[in-house]
Structures are given as structure tokens and as C-alpha cells.
Amino acid sequence: MSSYLRIDGPENIIGIGNLTGSNNNVTIHINANAERSPRQLRAPDSGFVGRSDQLRRLLYCLSTAIQERQSAICVLYGPGGMGKTQLALALAQRLGERFTGGQLFLDLGGSKVLPLTPKGAMDSVLRLLGVDAQVLADSSLAQLRDMYCMRLNERPVLLLADDAESASQVAELRPPPGSVLLVTSRIRFTLDSNCVEPVPGLGRTDAAQLARALCEPLPLSEYEERCIVDSCGGCPLAVRIVCARLAAAQSPAQRAAQLHLLSDGGMLGQDFQDADDRNLMRSLCWSYDLLPRSAQAVFCSLGAFQSTFDRLAAIVVAGRAPEEVDEALEILQRFCLVHEAQQAPQQRYHLYDVIRSLAVTLGSAEQAESDAAHHRMVKHFARILWYAEAMYANNVQYNGATAEKPVDSRGVEQLPCTAPLAALILAESGLTVVIAQELIGRVDYIRKIGLSLFDTERSNILASQRWAAKRLNIDRQAAQSVLEYVSKVGFILWLRLSAEEQKQWHAAAVQAAQKLGDKYAHALALGSYALALLDQGSLAEAKKFLEQARMIFSSLDDHRHDDELDSLEGLLLKAQGQHRAAIACFSRSIASAERKKDDKLRGHDLCNMGLAYVELNELDTAIDIFRCSV
User: Fold this and answer.
1) What is the dihedral of CA 315, 432, 518, 563, to 10 degrees?
2) pLDDT at residue 294 tops 90
3) Taking the C-alpha atoms of 362, 363, 367 and 368 in order, what is their torsion angle to the nearest 10 degrees?
4) Strand, helix or coil for residue 361
5) Which helix (H) or strand (E) holds 77?
6) Arithmetic mean of pLDDT, 121-134
7) Residue 397: its H or E element
8) Position 462 confidence tier, pLDDT thresholds 50, 70, 90
């Protein structure tokens, strides 16, 4: 129920956290010098061919809009695997370095289970532009839109919004004159732009040129070239997958045998109406069939991820030895079934959506193993969430560690140091972060790392919680995981989840606690759910669930959370305009917090008590209380 204990967030998020590691180690890599004007867009993949007329046309359209101070928006649409993102990257590369505010990449997740909401998309962009996290949490979509336009008027940016679900998802990202918005999507929409282009497959000549470029220095015979083009059609991703496999063939005879299998099909009994889908799936299934069994197993487990993932997450979810997963990742990368993430500061991987769909389909054939992989994923990202919360909440111990001599403490995960700031040693006991001597006093910086860690893994965290919530009625382990996702966090959820998302998480926790028959957890969940309802303005419902929480705690003769319940009741009464009654509740909570030496709760309640006195127009008293809270 600590989700109402709120404190100011950092001014900007400049740290980029990323967990990597081996069997016994976890390292948080910290980029202390993240760019104020981020340059997240890379060049298109090697072997990018064709599209010259289309690029010329798009470049002219956007350059004209920029010069005439008009809205510069380009929408590229087409089936998966056609190269929409690559075309957008090539276009961004040709537009040059004129965008002083940065070149940003935003994965909208339109074809995933949990696409970004319009507000989530705007939040993500503004975080990249350095807007304070708490300001974002307190702002409406209209207010965020105003901030966005103000920032872009000051310093123009080029934003690539990849994989849009619909026009409504990106409508608020329309830039003011001087900036450019590039959008890719599987469906056609305009966004009031005259620069809307389909991205079809490559022609036979361009497809053959791509095949030759990818197979270099291996020469392709005319027959081999024809087989590749006929089997892949004009789908660039299909050509890349096939050529990656053929380039690894050890002899012409092996290459010929593989091409024969490709021509035969191998569709796993699936019926595809669309030729592009059929060509791409043929190449994927063919490449998968040629993988070693261990790499096939790892590939299927990776379908659980809804976003980019790092090596440690792959090891955990696959449930195999690190060296086995490392070998599988190397093989899958070599054969274009796994790709390096577009904008990651440290090495992260991702699966194209159509490839992820195949991994999910193949993995579902072994339901027990698929469920086990998902459970491992849920546990892993719960821990990531806890770590982010611990760093933001400043639950730290200074143990005088140095880069040369990390802390060695029983029950504490040993984290190798990363120069120049040394390591963060994370302990699950009490969610304590044991930090190195170099970070003493750098509270704001540690908070930034915590927020950045959550932002990096946000999609996976949300997808993991949702998977567990959907299964809590049939799976006790999933129900326990749902509780874990809210039991040790507060600040991060409030800063990073929408009010509706918070409500859904806490409602699921109430249901999970009931399923498990855990009265104590049920009372805690009811209190947190009451707060989420209060934040949405549902005062009557909030009061009902608060009273239920009090009744359960009373039946258990458990008074450990009386102060938090008093504080929550004070917030409710203040929202109802009953300021004297609210002050009485805050007074009881403050007295309890003083006995427990809980300065965070005490400071929180003093602030709210001061606000209540302001509403009563007793300003001198309010000022004294505010001074005390500071």
C-alpha cells in the first residue's frame, strides 16, 4: 500500500540501465553521459537495395514541407517483412543532421499484445526529450501535447514511430513545422499527410540484387538466384533469411539440397491467403527446420518476449545453461531469426513480429514448456521491477565498495563493477540496493537509473503481469506472481503506469489474494485498490474498499498498517472536502510514523495536512506545517 508515498522525481532521465550477466552475475551498465539530443537512428541494414524512386519522391515531399513550414509527416504502410522500417531509416539518413533536438526511435508495438496507448507514446517521447517523470505522471494527454510542441519548436527532431496500430495511436505526435514524423504501419492511414506510401515487395531485379549482395563473396548461379527469388517473392526479410542460411552452407551440394527443401515448401500445415505471408513463412519454417534442436528450443522460448530483451533474460526464460543459450543466440542471429535491437545502448535482441508469431506457434505445441517459460519470464521481470523501485525509492546502503573491491555479502547478488561508477549490488532482502562508494550522495542519479531500468523493460513487465493476471484463476503460481508485481512497488507504478493500468493491476491483486485465500495480502491489495480508485475520482468505491481493508486487518488483529490506512482515509476525506476530518486522520498517521521513524510517510502526511489547512484558509498554520515537512 506504499503507492501513495510520493516524492519528487528526477529532472531528466540520463542513465540507461540494462541488465546483462552470466550464470552468477548481473551487471547494470550505466551510461552516465547519455546525450541531451539523442541520436537513436542507425543506418539501414547492409544490402539495402532498390526503392530509389520511392526515396527520391519521399525526400522531395518532406524537404518541401520543411522549407514551407508545413507539417512534415510520412506514413509508410505494408505487410510485415517488406522493409518499411529499413526504408524509413534510409529516408532519415538522407534527411541529414538538421534536427538539433535529436533523432528518436519509438516502438509503438502496434502488432504486439500490448501496443502503446496514445498517452504512453507521448510519455515515451517526452522522456527521451528530458521531461521530468513526475510532470508526465501528473499531466493529461492535452498537456503532454502542449509540452511536446513547445520542445519541438525550441529544437526540431526527427521521430521514427515504428509499427503503429492506428492513426489514433500517433495522432498527437504530429509535429509542429520544422520537425519530421516518420510512421510505419501494417495498415493505411493519412494523419492529414500527403506523403503516404505503400511499401510493396521488391521487384525481381532488386530481389536478385539483394540476394547477390547478401551471399557475397559466395557467387550464386543463375538457377540458385531464380530459386531464391521464386521462393521468397519480393519479401526482403525472406530473402535475408534464405541467403543467411545458404551463405553458411559448407558445399555446393549442401546448398543445392537446402534449396530443394525450400522449393518444396514446408509450411507446417498452415494456409496463407496472402502471397507475401506465404513466402515469408516458407523461408522461416525452412530455416527453423535446419536449426540444431537446442537452438530450436531457445527460439521457441523467445516468443514469450513482447519487446527487446537482453542476454540474461534470454538465459532465464529459456531455462538452459548460459553457454547453450549463448550458442543458440549466435546461431539465431547468424540466420536472421533474431536481430539486434535498433536503439539499445547495450546489446539487446528482438524478434520481428512475424518471426515472434512463428516462435509462439511452435512453442504452443509443447504447452507445458511454454507455460514454464512464461512463468520464468514473469518471475524475472518482477525482480527487475523490484530493483527499479528500490533504486528510485532510495533504499540504499553505502558499503564502501569500490570498482576494485566489490561488496561480498551473504545473500547479496555479486555485481561486477562497471567503470567509472562501480557496481550496484542488489539484495532482494528488504529490497535494499547496496551501492559503491562512488555513488554516495548521488540520490537523484540512482533514481534516474531506476526509472530508466523500468523504461527499458516496460513492455516486458506489462506483458508478464498481464499473462499472470489472465491465468490467476487456474494457476496458483500465476496468482502469487500477480501479488508480487504490486507488493514491493509504489513509486514506479505511479510514475510510469496510467491510472487505468494501476487500477487493473491492483484489481488483479485483489482477485489473486482471494484465490490464494491470503487474508493479509487481500487486505493490502484492497487498500492499494482503494488508492487507485481514489486517483481516478471514484470516491464511493474507494471508501468501500478502504473499509473492507480495515475490517480484514481488524479480524486478523494486525495493526501494522493502521498509519497507512489513516493516511489513505485522510486523502479520501480531503477529496470529499471534509478537511477537518482529514487533518485528524493525518495527525494519527503522523504520530504513528514518528514512532516507527518513517520519515517518508510523515513527510507525505505533513504535506497533505498543509494542503488541507490551505483549503480551510488557515495559511499561517499551513506554512508552518510545510516548513516542518521540508
Assistant:
1) -150
2) yes
3) 140
4) helix
5) strand 72-77
6) 82
7) strand 396-401
8) very high
Cα separation, 624 vs 617, in Å, equals: 13
DSSP lists the bridge partners of residue 434 as 397, 425
- How many angstroms separate the CA atoms of 438 and 536, rounded? 41
57-72 pLDDT, tens digit per residue, is 999 988 888 888 888 8
The C-alpha angle 453, 126, 137, rounded to 5 degrees, equals: 75
What's the whole-number average pLDDT of the chain? 80
Q: Which three cell numbers stand for residue 147?
A: 509540452
Alpha helices in 185-251 (DSSP H): 204-215, 222-232, 236-247
pLDDT at 34 over 50: no
Q: Which three cell numbers stand for residue 17?
A: 540501465
Query: In the chain, what are the helix, strand and coil shares in percent, each to the nearest 5?
Result: 60, 10, 35
Angle between helices 367-392 and 443-471 (to 10 degrees): 150
For the record, the C-alpha cell of 161 comes out as 514511430
Under the phi-then-psi rule, with left for phi > 0, alpha for psi from -120 to 50, and beta for the rest, what region is 269? left
Residues 6+ apart with CB under 8 A from 170: 108, 118, 121, 161, 164, 181, 183, 191
Cell 530509389 -> residue = 52
User: CB of 19 within 8 A of CB of 423?
Assistant: no
Question: pTM to 2 decimals?
Answer: 0.79
> What local confidence, expressed as pLDDT, does residue 406 receive?
40
Cis peptide before 176 (omega within 30 of 0): no
Percent of the chain predicted with pLDDT > 90:
29
| C-alpha cell read off for 253 | 551440394
What does the alpha-carbon distance between residue 79 and residue 63 come to, in Å, rounded to a whole number? 27
User: How far is it, in rounded angstroms, from Cα 100 to Cα 153?
Assistant: 11
CA dihedral 372, 376, 381, 382 (to 10 degrees): 90
Q: Report whether 314 contacts 298 (CB < 8 A).
A: yes
Convert 181-206 to b/e letters by CB count within 10 Å (16 or more is b). bbbbbbeebebebebbbebebbeeeb
Q: Which helix (H) or strand (E) holds 627?
A: helix 619-629
Neighbouring CB atoms inside 10 A of 150's CB total 10
**Location of C-alpha cell 508552518:** 624
Question: What is the spatial order of strands in the sheet that 432-436 belongs to?
Answer: 396-401, 432-436, 424-427
Closest by CA position to 401, among listed 379, 424, 382: 424
Q: Look at residue 588 and give its three-state secondary structure.
A: helix
Name the residue with cell 557475397. 216
167 class by beta-carbon count within 10 Å (0-12 exposed, 13-18 middle, 19+ buried): middle
Residue 465 has pLDDT above 90, yes or no: yes
Cis peptide upstream of residue 219 (ω within 30 degrees of 0): no
Distance between CA atoms of residues 122 and 227, nearest Å? 45
Segment 341-381, tens digit of pLDDT: 765 556 789 888 889 888 988 888 888 888 999 999 999 99
DSSP 495-514: HHS-HHHHHHHHHHHHHHHH
Q: How far apart are CA 202 and CA 214, in angstroms?
A: 15
Angle at 567 between CA 563 and CA 573, to 5 degrees: 140
Residue 223 neighbours by CB under 8 Å, 6+ apart = none
Cell of 14: 540520463
Amino acid at position 250, single letter: Q
CB 530 within 8 A of CB 568: yes
